[in-house]
Amino acid sequence: MKADLKTSREKILKKINNLSDEEAVEVVDFIEFIRRRRRKEGGLLEVLNQVPGPRIGLLALRDRLSKIPGRMSEAVRELRDERG
């Protein structure tokens, strides 16, 4: 896997070296965008992991919510009230 990573990095560097100045600026902007997104996602995951209550998977949550009669907002409010 390290060899694949090294090869990928080498390919990226070769391609970057062949870019115009304007294209290089776009690449830098894109890399910064990815880093900002990763930081935001990391922060959200931290908060979600600190929320008390039972842990259920996304599919289980979808199944649970799909079977609720009435308005979903009411069901979510009731479930939130149950957790306290």
Give an overview of the whole structure.
The chain has 84 residues and is mainly alpha-helical. The chain folds into two domains: 1-51; 55-84, no CATH class. The protein is built from four helices and no strands. The longest helix has 30 residues, at 21-50.
Topology:
Blueprint: H1 2-17, H2 21-50, H3 58-66, H4 72-83
Main beta-sheet strand count, sense and barrel state:
none
Distance between the termini: 46 Å
Number of strands: 0
User: How many distinct helices?
Assistant: 4
Structural class: mainly alpha
Tally of structural domains: 2
Taken as a percent bin, the fraction of beta residues is under 5%
Radius of gyration over all CA atoms, rounded: 22 Å
Q: Using the alpha-carbon principal axes, give the shape.
A: elongated
Mean pLDDT value: 81
Q: List segments where confidence is low: pLDDT < 50 over at least 5 consecutive residues.
A: none
List the secondary-structure elements in sequence, H or E: HHHH
What is the helix fraction of residues, given as a range? over 70%
Question: Keywords, please?
Answer:
84 residues, mainly alpha, 2 domains, 4 helices, 0% strand
